[in-house]
Description:
Blueprint: H1 15-23, E1 27-31, E2 37-38, E3 53-57, E4 61-70, E5 81-88, E6 93-99, E7 111-116, E8 126-130
Parallel strand pairs: 6-8
Antiparallel strand pairs: 1-2, 1-3, 4-5, 4-7, 5-6, 7-8
Protein name: DUF35 domain-containing protein
Domain ChsH2 rubredoxin-like zinc ribbon: 18-53
Domain ChsH2 C-terminal OB-fold: 55-117
Amino acid sequence: MPTDAPELTYDDASAPFFEGAARGELMLQFCESCEGYMWPVKYRCLHCFAPTVVWRAASGRATLYSLSVVHQAHPRFPGPYVLATVATREGVRFNASLVGENAASTPIGSELVAVFDHTEKPFTVPRFRRVS
Length: 132
């Protein structure tokens, strides 16, 4: 396995997501026409196809939908780590790391909150932990 991982970057379309994470905010796209939140990043609404998509700060709260413990080592992601599918309060599902004590045994349906490790490089991404 190569020891040098490729450089990670993000594009202009997803910049508000990563810039929000750097500020400690979970940013999601929102359609001003039908008032639906969406993921992944699109230029038109996934629900009504309107071009009135903007970025909004989300609640940062979610419910655990599923999880998997990944054991395979990678230069950027030393294993094992917990990969989760979360369902935000805004109705958006996406994958993120689940962190915290006993993350791998977190029950499905648990309430989660977004957390941000600002020491991550080259940019911050949201992770989730169980609400105590």
